[in-house]
Design brief:
The structure is a homodimer. The first copy, chain A, is α/β, with parallel strands linked by helices. Helices cover 42% and strands 14% of the residues of chain A. Chain A has a six-stranded parallel β-sheet, with helices on both faces. The first copy, chain A, has a six-stranded mixed β-sheet with strand order 7-6-8-9-10-12, sandwiched between helices. In chain A, strand 8 (252-255), helix 11 (258-270) and strand 9 (280-284) form a beta-alpha-beta unit. In chain A, helix 1 (15-22) packs across helix 2 (26-33) and helix 1 (15-22) crosses helix 3. The radius of gyration of chain A is 26 Å and the shape is elongated. The structure holds a DNA duplex.
Chain lengths: 346, 346
DNA sequence: ACCCCGTGGAGAACCGGTTTTCCAGACGGT
DNA sequence: ACCGTCTGGAAAACCGGTTCTCCACGGGGT
């Protein structure tokens, strides 16, 4: 039978362990570690405590801390689709900024199958996280309903989607980016320009389409064709085929996501169009892959990391002050010229 | 001045709130809610408690629970790169299985810049999660060192990588999948087959290369060429260009990741090779995008969701019993035939 | 010798759960 | 009427922190 002496290191060092070895009480250790400025303490005692805490590898227990402070220092980022690399960039920006502000980020994929999405509200109610960054695009999301019904119950910010009346939207200048895409195509001489904006009920699709239409009008043009289709390769393929068969005069296409562009390129090829001469393509959102397509794909790169970081800023601000507001990142997008946009041959 | 009556709903309902309204003590409520079978209680009292808890929307405070139980019911999944869709599939499998077993999964991207990676061990030490699913591929990872030094301090499992001596590896049959790819190419008549395995120091690259070599040998062949390059588009491009320029007799190429294949296709085109007739390509890992490339890309689809689920199984088993073991998912991969593999023309 | 004040820290309450121990009262048997 | 047993639940300790209140002690001034 082996008895554990009190000198034996336990599984983890606790505050009281540090206190015992330092010859003080745990309240002192807590205040030293947290840098309480109202504490008057002998410098040597302070350094002794800090050294012992370090020796023991002391780390505060997150649960105990959350219980005592009524806050966790964790934010949840809800994204609709992990395989969409757009969210990878947003996530990186959010992580970095959260870290900067002393928060951690918990990432959750908000798939439709997870019990209606109410689980995510539960993250906050059960005290796992302090607030929610909601990047889900689904229009009829039950979580969104709930957040709108009792907005103050749960700190939250909507990222890259627009929930009217929430006053908690942080977004990109999608209209501006779309206008830039139009300008780029027009500058190359295109006048018969089509677009695949994405599902009409989703706000990102609406915003990009709105900017597209408005800028065409500015140039005295109107859309050659608009065809919806979801944000996937298949959606781009279907929409582009529809456009190219029903409006063969189209010389340029603006797609709403990178993978839509992939689908659209395949659609063009399947109809015997040669890229880029028979059809110029530019897409919203950039990707490392753009350099390795044939033709290399011209894109509008968006400041996604900044979007994530700004969303964190807003959420932390909301946690601290209770104030909420909308914010749009006005600049930061840019056209990345590659080979998929050339002057029209007709 | 408004005074809050005790009838007023607080921010969240606590156990004691449910208890008061039920006319019992919180210990009873706790035992009822947790289904304590040793509790003898009047059925009507039980239903009353449950109804009131439901009415109040009671959710236990995760921190308090973790403090009391010394477990959180949360597992952390550490992945090296969020923009890699392979991990999206692994993550989905892990989420689903974790949910099944009553756990939640916290996702963390293990980027190199995050303070040496020791932060992740801290997730466990600080009581935020119960265990770690480590999918990071970096060979020299400080976290891996730490886990190897004190393996019992932190429950963990290595996913899709092989850490020798850890006895906590769960992986796919990469060698078998590579053998299947070789078989597929050989069945189409190829005898001059090259591979871009990826960075030589990473175990996934080694495992795929090993299976490739062994199966070629089985067919009485030897590799036409092997060129390393990282797992990205650029890595595939560079490696494929090297192969095609230095070993022009190559008729078929097996790449180690989907995006490597994208890069390799571009490399082939850049050298005037026509796909697939001048070069057949097959890649490890499938993607929805494969259907929209030119030519449509033949792949070896891996059971990634099952990998994630199995990893969770093993970690939960480790938490429950302290037992550890290696596990390889032997089957489940399959060739997805598309258009990028054709008989050689030479 | 006495008072006052600043220094340096002790002690206890509390956060919201879980779990173990214990007990009042009803009930049945003799 | 008394005893033992079972039923249904109360009470308290504990998990590991944070924070508020309070106090012992020593030095300086008069």
């Amino acid at each position: 039978m082996v008895t554990i002496s009190s000198q034996e290191p336990r599984g983890r060092a606790r505050l009281v362990d540090v206190a015992e070895r330092s010859g003080v009480t745990k309240s002192i250790v807590s205040r030293v570690i947290n840098g309480d400025t109202t504490l008057r303490i002998r410098p040597e005692t302070r350094t002794r405590i800090l050294r012992i805490a370090d020796d023991l590898g002391y780390r505060p227990h997150a649960g105990a801390r959350a219980l005592s402070l009524s806050r966790t220092g964790v934010l949840a980022l809800l994204i609709p689709d992990l395989s969409n690399s757009v969210y990878a960039a947003v996530t990186r920006g959010a992580y970095r900024q959260a870290r900067e502000l002393g928060y951690a980020v918990l990432l959750a994929e908000d798939t439709a199958d997870v019990g209606g999405g109410d689980d995510y509200a539960e993250l906050v109610i059960s005290g796992r996280v302090d607030g929610l960054l909601v990047a889900s695009a689904r229009a009829d999301h039950p979580l969104v309903d709930r957040l709108l019904r009792e907005p103050d119950a749960i700190a939250h910010v909507f990222v890259n989607r627009e929930v009217p009346g929430s006053h908690r939207n942080v977004g990109l200048d999608m209209a501006g980016a779309s206008a830039a895409a139009v300008d780029h195509l027009v500058a190359h001489g295109h006048r018969h320009i089509a677009m695949t904006p994405g599902p009409p009920e989703l706000t990102p699709a609406q915003a990009r389409l709105g900017g597209f239409r408005a800028r065409l009008e500015h140039h005295g043009l109107s859309p050659e064709a608009i065809a919806s289709g979801d944000f996937s390769e298949a959606g781009g393929y279907t929409a582009a085929r529809e456009i190219l068969t029903r409006w063969p005069s189209t010389t340029a296409l603006y797609t709403s996501t990178f993978v839509q562009a992939i689908g659209a390129m395949q659609a063009a090829r399947s109809l015997g169009r040669r890229l880029p001469h028979d059809l110029s393509i530019i897409t919203y959102d950039d990707s490392p892959m753009a350099d390795y397509l044939e033709p290399r794909l011209t894109t509008v790169a968006m400041p996604l990391a900044e979007l994530g970081a700004t969303a964190v800023d807003l959420l932390v601000e909301q946690l601290a002050s209770g104030q909420v507001r909308d914010l749009r990142i006005e600049d930061g997008f840019r056209i990345v010229e590659r080979d998929s946009v050339v002057p029209p041959t007709r």
